[in-house]
TrEMBL record:
Gene3D superfamilies: 2.60.120.380, Galactose-binding domain-like, Glycoside hydrolase family 3 C-terminal domain, Glycoside hydrolase, family 3, N-terminal domain, Immunoglobulins. This is Exo-alpha-(1->6)-L-arabinopyranosidase. The keyword Membrane does not apply. Pfam families: CBM_6 (PF03422), Fn3-like (PF14310), Glyco_hydro_3 (PF00933), Glyco_hydro_3_C (PF01915). Keywords: Hydrolase, Signal. Residues 838-953 form the CBM6 domain. PROSITE patterns: CBM6. The keyword Signal applies. SUPFAM superfamilies: (Trans)glycosidases, Actin-crosslinking proteins, Beta-D-glucan exohydrolase, C-terminal domain, Galactose-binding domain-like. Catalyzes the hydrolysis of a non-reducing terminal alpha-L-arabinopyranosidic linkage in ginsenoside Rb2 (alpha-L-arabinopyranosyl-(1->6)-alpha-D-glucopyranosyl) to release alpha-D-glucopyranosyl (Rd). It is not able to hydrolyze alpha-L-arabinofuranosyl-(1->6)-alpha-D-glucopyranosyl (Rc). GO terms for biological process: arabinan catabolic process; xylan catabolic process. SMART domains: CBD_IV, Fn3_like. GO terms for molecular function: alpha-L-arabinofuranosidase activity; beta-glucosidase activity; carbohydrate binding; xylan 1,4-beta-xylosidase activity.
Length: 954
């Protein structure tokens, strides 16, 4: 007798729709198993043959943290290409390598946490390198291209499942887990939500990750916008993954909830499906979820909803259909095509900022390559480990020949004398074991540069009568690195000793940076403070270590200069035909995750090198290699370029552009301001009110949004348009009038001519990068939906196209407009606010002074409060009181006074609020108030109160 084969579970049946299969699998999981699924590291369910799963694999510009991989330019560099097709191909390559790496290491995840679509609103944001642009349309276009590449083009199965970061209005690292971004409705809908929305609606996004910060007083991890906006943009199940440690922040740093059970329940109910907290240890999250269930804060149905979204992603990734998964056998890794794509993308990211005939360089030119970035190929926190490496110096050697290129790094070379008269010495490392990348992996398989730097098998620094000459590299803001004669950076291991052990500065906490502080007891003395630990360097019998907590216990050093960086630069510059000064930043220092910049200026040391080069040789070009814009004085420079850190092919790409093998066509993805004084406050998220980004900035930028020059010239002509129903169709012709083949980036902007509310000075509506041979022409055509001309009407809570005149502006940048014409749109006429029937929501103001938006409750709604409990004002335009009202009421919490008045009208009505029990304990306060017809309403708020809504009666 033969035993009967058990039936195949429905979740294993590929003939069934994913939704039915998810339901079947969900029903088979026990409650404990479902609860365990809420943590980032989901355990295996062996009885069902379900493998372990991990949400989260960093892949911003290549597979990160998992060892060697192809490294493409930083995200801001990809934004500078303005090339959707190129970025899509990069996404395809990155997802192929993700699959190939997973085939040999199951710690590599297929749920990739990329791209970052936070807008580059403020150029001092420490994570600006991770975003694409300050413009929401360009950001969404590039992000959509990247996610399409990551997802793949199969109709059923996905190559990887991309998650967008970081929801929402996140542009500061300073106190990033406790600061609140005050975002009024127009900015929310026209700016911050837009980049996410257009990418989600394109259909290649698996989910989002909330940001650490609060928005309008409420942490993003309990944001109602997840359900009110995000989940309404698509019928597809979206997975919401928390940022690392953010669930605990709800209690520990933000103090938004009293208990972790309350916080966990609130996050699940808001829409968080996967908790990234406490590393690989899921026990605390499991305990909190169970506690929330026991307390009645969550139901099993709430848990099922979150698990269902996770399972939907796993089915799309082909986990349960290995024989049908078209990407299961992907082995494409470090292929010739990927290497070529890395070079192509690095070339396309180069932006020629200025050129007065110095570039391109001739084949026989003698070059001086100088500066801190000349012989560097820098990585950032989200880079993979380099398989290939090309610095600018190496690229120049390859292209022009080593005999035609002289190099001077320009660092100051010093010896450090101790109080005993001896000098710091770097001992020779004898018989030290080499540490491989595989040996430096953490528990999660992530490559940790700090483990390479934190070696204890190397001898620590000592002292002797001669000492060692150290390269002192000044990165600005008082931060420096010290490099030994063998090229290794001084670093501090867990045992506190200082060793020459790091290839580069790096790690979550950088252990290779120091500060020199003047000694109060010695005229020429300095204390050496280690920034990673906050302790001072001491000299002991067994070696040099960081041990002193107080300055009085620290070693006092005198700096003996053996060579100034300017002197080395001057020598090689004077003997060259052309000087290339390579300046910029190290992505782990002064501007990175957890650390905002404080200024747009180049570090003072780099400015000195630039001046020295220019004084020695007028034929000097500045080549900025950086993750951020800088405010540089270029008046006496004949040429300047910028590129983000370009990954593995950065140096080759720069050399090909400098030589003219490639004509540059990158375009700035954000405004370069001329001075720090042009910037708003870092925490001022009101791009409209404070006139931020190219959309509203009224000053003169150093270089405008969309700017970038070429070695060719291009003519624009034949601008035509027509309106078909809800679409404006625009066409024009671009011709290469130069003598070489080159790319051009044609840009189409729109502008409301006479708007009734503040609108952008101009707004990017479409763009296209195209390649043209000399004399060749191409006709470009764009179809703009009427929604492209709309704004968010706060009076009525929806988008509206205002009737009137609009300009179509075509050109090579936001300020280099070559063609323009005006069109008329019928739109929808404005209507006054029906305040008698609907009242006024406080956050729907037209204008404000000295206020911020806060949370009305911990679950939903907005209120407005004066900044710091002082005095603020709200203005509401065109309020219609109809035949008249006789009373006013206000929903208030806290304590204070609200005065309501009409422009030019009688004395204000006063509503006085006695103290309430807390910020969420609202009461309604009334007063007599007479008005009829249409008026502008002014509300003056005094004291620490919260105003949610105003109503009218009578």
């Amino acid at each position: 007798m033969t035993a009967q084969t058990p039936p195949t579970p429905s979740f294993r049946d590929p003939r069934l729709p994913f939704a039915k299969r998810v339901d079947d699998l969900l029903a088979r999981l026990t409650l404990d198993e479902r609860i365990a699924f809420l943590h980032q590291f989901t355990p295996a369910v062996e009885r069902l043959g379900i493998a372990a799963f991990r949400t989260g694999q960093e892949a911003l510009h290549g597979v990160a943290w998992m060892g060697p991989a192809t490294v493409f330019p930083q995200a801001v560099g990809l934004g500078a290409t303005w090339n959707d097709d190129l970025v899509r191909r990069i996404g395809e390559a990155v997802s192929a390598e993700t699959r190939a790496m997973r085939a040999r290491d199951d710690r590599v995840g297929l749920n990739v946490w990329s791209p970052t679509v936070n807008l580059l609103r403020h150029p001092l944001w420490g994570r600006g390198e991770e975003g694409y642009s300050e413009d929401p349309r360009l950001t969404s276009a590039i992000a959509t291209a990247y996610t399409r590449g990551l997802r793949g083009d199969h109709p059923t199965y996905w190559r990887t499942a991309p998650v967008l970061k970081h929801w929402l209005a996140h542009n500061n690292e300073t106190n990033r887990d406790t600061t609140s971004s005050s975002v009024r409705p127009r900015v929310l809908h026209e700016y911050d939500l837009r980049a996410f929305r257009e990418t989600v609606e394109a259909g290649a996004v698996a989910g989002v990750m909330p940001a650490y910060n609060l928005v309008n007083g409420r942490p993003n991890h309990v944001s109602p916008y997840l359900r009110e906006h995000l989940r309404t943009w698509t019928d597809q199940e979206l997975l919401v993954c928390s940022d690392a440690g953010a669930p605990s922040n709800l209690v520990d740093s933000e103090h938004y909830f009293d208990t972790h059970e309350e916080a966990t329940a609130a996050a699940v109910l808001a829409g968080v499906d996967s908790f990234t907290d406490h590393g690989t240890d899921s026990s605390k999250i499991v305990e909190r979820v169970r506690g929330a269930l026991v307390q009645g804060l969550l139901s099993e149905a709430d848990i099922d909803e979150a698990v269902r979204r996770q399972l939907a992603i796993r089915f799309r990734l082909g986990e349960f259909d290995p024989r049908l998964d078209p990407y299961a056998g992907t082995l494409d890794f470090d292929t010739a095509a990927h290497r070529a794509l890395a070079r192509e993308s690095a070339e396309q990211a180069v932006v020629l900022l200025k050129n007065e005939g110095l570039l391109p360089l001739g084949p026989e030119v003698r070059i001086a390559a100088v500066g801190l970035l000349a012989d560097e190929c820098k990585l950032d926190w989200y880079s993979g480990t380099l398989l290939h490496r090309s610095t600018p110096l190496e690229g120049l050697y390859e292209r022009f020949g080593a005999d035609r290129v002289n190099f001077a790094e320009g660092v100051d070379r010093v010896r450090l004398r101790t109080s005993s008269g001896a000098f710091l010495r770097v001992p020779v490392a004898e018989n030290a074991a080499e540490v491989t990348a595989d040996e430096a992996r953490g528990a999660e398989g992530a490559l940790d540069p700090a483990l390479l730097a934190g070696r204890t098998d190397l001898p620590p620094l000592t002292t002797d009568a001669v000492g060692s000459e150290l390269a002192l590299i000044d990165w600005g803001e008082g931060v420096l690195t010290l490099r030994a004669p063998d090229g290794r950076y001084l670093s501090v291991a867990d045992d506190g000793y200082v060793r020459a052990s790091a290839d580069q500065p790096g790690g979550w906490v950088v252990q290779e940076t120091f500060r020199l502080e003047p000694s109060e007891s010695h005229d020429n003395g300095h204390l050496l403070k280690h920034t990673g630990t906050g302790r001072y360097v001491c000299v002991a019998a067994d070696g040099v270590k960081v041990a002193a907590q107080e300055p009085r216990d620290a070693e006092i050093f005198e700096l003996e200069s053996t060579e100034r960086g300017e002197d080395a630069v001057t020598r090689v510059a004077a003997a060259a035909d052309v000087v290339l000064v390579f300046a910029g930043n190290d992505p782990h220092i002064n501007g990175r995750e957890t650390e905002d910049r404080t200024t747009l200026r180049l570090p003072a040391h780099q400015e000195r090198l630039l001046r020295a080069a220019r004084a020695a040789n007028p034929a000097t070009a500045l080549v900025l290699v950086s993750a951020y814009p800088y405010a540089v004085d270029h008046a006496d420079l004949p040429a300047a370029l910028w590129t983000a850190h370009g990954g593995q092919a950065a140096g080759t790409a720069l050399a090909r552009v400098l030589s003219g093998d490639v004509s540059p066509a990158g375009r700035l993805p954000q405004t370069w301001y001329a001075d720090d004084a042009d910037l708003p406050g870092l925490l001022d998220y009101d791009v409209i009110g404070s006139r931020q980004t190219y959309l509203y900035f009224e000053g003169t930028p150093l270089f405008p949004f969309g700017h970038g020059l070429s070695y060719a010239s291009f003519a624009y002509e034949g601008l035509e348009h027509r309106t078909d129903e809800d679409t404006v169709r625009v066409s024009f012709t671009v011709t290469n009038t130069g003598s070489r083949a080159a790319d051009e980036v044609a840009q189409l902007y729109i502008r409301a001519v006479d708007p009734s509310v503040p609108r952008p000075r101009r707004e990017l509506a479409a763009h296209r990068r195209l390649r043209l041979a000399p004399g060749a022409s191409a006709e470009l055509a764009f179809a703009l939906p009427s929604a492209a001309f709309a704004f968010w009407d706060v009076a009525h809570g929806r988008r509206r196209v205002e009737p009137g005149s609009y300009e179509l502006l075509v050109g090579a940048s936001s300020e280099d407009i070559r063609l323009r014409t005006t069109i008329e749109l019928t739109g929808e006429a404005a209507a006054p606010r029906a305040v008698r029937a609907l009242g006024l929501k406080a956050a729907d103001f037209d204008d404000q002074r000295n206020t911020e938006i806060v949370d009305r409750t911990k679950v939903s709604g907005d209120a407005v409060t004066p900044l710091d409990g002082g005095t603020g004002e709200l203005v509401f335009r065109a309020c219609d009181f109809g035949a008249g009202v006789s009373g006013v009421s206000a929903d208030l919490a806290g304590e204070g006074v609200v005065e309501i008045s009409l422009a030019g009208g009688p004395p204000p009505a006063v509503l006085t609020l006695p103290p309430t029990k807390g910020p969420y304990d609202y009461t309604t306060v009334t007063a007599a108030f007479a008005a009829d017809g249409v008026h502008d309403v002014h509300l003056r708020l005094r004291g620490p109160l919260r105003l949610a809504q105003v109503g009218f009666s009578g």
